[in-house]
Write a structure and sequence with these properties.
mainly alpha
Length: 69
């Protein structure tokens, strides 16, 4: 498995709206650098560039409110 694996998604005949949506989504992901980042991580084995924790409601909003009680 030296080359990247190609995937195909089967859609219903006449699913033009879904096809259009998927094509737009893939183009946006490609232009934002997401595809390049994913290839570097999953195919080339490079570490992810950012290890910052993700924002979440409990840690960022609810816990500070509970400390004030």
């Amino acid at each position: 498995m030296g080359a990247p694996l190609l995937f195909a998604y089967f859609l219903q005949p006449g699913a033009a709206a879904l096809t259009r949506y998927l094509n737009i989504w893939l183009a946006l992901q490609d232009s934002s650098g997401f595809r390049t980042d994913q290839l570097a991580y999953w195919i080339e084995g490079k570490p992810r560039a950012s290890a910052t924790p993700r924002w979440n409601l409990i840690d960022n909003v609810l816990r500070p409110a509970w400390r004030g009680w």
